[in-house]
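so im writing up the methods section and need the AB hydrolase superfamily protein YdjP record in one place, dumping it here so i stop losing it
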Amino acid sequence: MKYPLIKQSLPALLGEDFYFPHEIIGQAFRASDFPDLKVSSFSTSDRVNLAYWEAGEGQPLIFIPGWSANGAMYFHLMHILSKHYHVYVLDVRNQGFSEKTASGNRISRYAMDVKEFAEHLGLPEAHYCGWSMGASVMWAYIDLFGTQGIRTLSIIDQAPSVYCHADWTEQQRLDAGAFTTSPERMIDSYVNMTPTNQLVSRTRYGTRLSLFSQCNQLGPGGHKRRHGIHRIGAFRPCHQRLARRHPNQDRRAHRDIHRGIQ
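--- predicted struct ---
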């Protein structure tokens, strides 16, 4: 990746068009369907290039993704909200189009990145939304810098505890949102798709994981069935791993996913 990125369109950045999985009927599902979407970058105080996605006009709305996520997972949401807001999605360091680095991989540093991102944009105030790990980043932001500059804050899908302790009861596990018993088992569940804590009963973990499936896991025809759901490769911003797929394939898969999760 050559930095800086300056308002590049997604097809230009990838060198080809891309069909997004999990199509929403009536909404854009190809990168070329959303020409206002641009990708840029800025350099942090510790000299790491962070990419961000933006579209629309109006009050600034900044999304901070969860662990391993990136702006591509907000494609449909940006397309809808850009009609009312100037929407930004920051690719956290080592995620998405942002630079890969061994330094600064701490929540406190991510919070500093958010502050420097707002300063780069020249925004005295903005709406913020943190999802999963992004919520932790925003709590750290408030701890470090206070609430000045935050017009509103939305927190989505943050579990109080990702993993649980051995002496917790079933109710304690459920109340905390913990889906596995150790950090090692959590990592193994993402890397190898191994089962998580069997005692946690009210979770749609398999559905959520389907959003994170990678292009290199696809089977023939671009689909791979797992647990009754077609697992379609969610966008991973690395053009070597992207595969062209006919839009009809995505429509068929969308119907299968809808049936599978009902």
